[in-house]
Specification:
CATH superfamily of the largest domain in chain B: NADH-ubiquinone/plastoquinone oxidoreductase chain 6, subunit NuoJ
Helix content of chain A: over 70%
Strand content of chain B: under 5%
CATH topology of chain A: Helix Hairpins
Number of helices of chain B: 7
Shape of chain A: elongated
Order of helices and strands of chain B: HHHHHHH
Number of helices of chain A: 3
Shape of chain B: flat
Structural class of chain B: mainly alpha
Largest sheet of chain B: none
Number of domains of chain A: 1
Largest interface: A-B, 66 and 65 residues
Distance between the termini of chain A: 57 Å
Radius of gyration of chain A: 17 Å
Oligomer: heterodimer
CATH topology of the largest domain in chain B: Four Helix Bundle (Hemerythrin (Met), subunit A)
CATH architecture of chain A: Orthogonal Bundle
Largest sheet of chain A: none
Number of strands of chain B: 0
């Protein structure tokens, strides 16, 4: 019945995660960084779903649900921060926010 | 059968994600990101996680992406908006995402037509998920609700119109 091997699913999850990581590291636009973070969270959820499908348990989907709520909260706060940074610095360049003095 | 669909969908997901991180325009990147999420949703369906597939489409590709669209539109106010809108409405930008979406749609039709003969993975239906969610994982649900409340309060606080500070770079 289950003819999709787990390795392929995990490999796809790894590739998507790596692409998201590359996006976070390479792009300097805050919106693009947030989008790449979404891709990374999504890839993590895919790994959980693959494992849950492999064992036939509901736990994988529950972990995906929790990741979904995490992503929703993260996007809300992250986009609020991006809006504030844009109003304050008139740019979305992440490198422009280097004036924090701790 | 399911393996072939899985390969095609994986290719679509990886290609869309690769296009997403290389687009210069945020809206174009958003189109490809939505495609990537939809493709992952189809993979969830192929793996037998129907509930997660539905949530992926409704919440990820629906709700969260709408937030991105709102913010991108809010940040693009100004004189340049008109020619930007004009450039965005050019045909050609949406052809790539449309073709990828067409692939996913054909796959979905194929699965629906095949019905029970489509050998998807081990189906874990939403009833099992619900029972586990409100049984052993009740504490996790409460924590998730607290996290959402914190996110709501944080987004409300950050989204308020900024208090006027000293011109630029005022830190307060």
């Amino acid at each position: 019945m289950n003819e999709i091997p787990m390795e392929f699913g995990l490999l796809l999850s790894f590739v998507l995660f790596a692409l998201g990581l590359i996006g976070v590291l390479v792009r300097r636009n805050l919106i693009m960084i947030l989008m790449s973070l979404e891709v990374m969270l999504n890839a993590t959820g895919l790994a959980f779903i693959v494992a849950g499908s492999r064992w036939g348990e509901a736990d994988g989907q529950i972990m995906f649900l929790l990741i979904l709520t995490l992503a929703a909260a993260e996007v809300g706060v992250g986009l609020g921060l991006a809006l504030q940074i844009f109003h304050r610095f008139h740019t979305l360049d992440a490198d422009s926010v280097n004036e924090m003095k701790g | 059968m399911a393996l072939t669909l899985f390969y095609i969908t994986s290719a679509v997901a990886v290609f869309a994600t690769g296009m997403m991180i290389t687009r210069l325009n945020a809206v174009h990147a958003l189109l490809y990101l939505i495609l990537s999420l939809l493709a992952v949703g189809v993979i969830f369906f192929l793996l037998g996680a129907h509930f997660a597939a539905v949530l992926e489409v409704i919440i990820y590709a629906g709700a969260i992406m709408v937030l991105f669209v709102f913010v991108i539109m809010m940040l693009n106010q100004g004189q340049k908006t008109m020619e930007q809108e004009h450039a965005w409405l050019q045909p050609g930008i949406w052809i790539g995402p449309s073709l990828l979406a067409l692939i996913l749609f054909v796959e979905l039709l194929l699965i629906v037509v095949l019905g029970d003969n489509a050998e998807t993975g081990h189906v874990v239906d939403s009833k099992q998920v619900g029972i586990a969610l409100y049984g052993p994982y009740l504490l996790a649900v409460e924590l998730a609700s607290l996290l959402l409340l914190a996110g709501l309060v944080g987004a409300y606080h950050l989204g308020k119109p900024m208090i006027k500070t000293k011109k630029s770079g005022g830190n307060s």
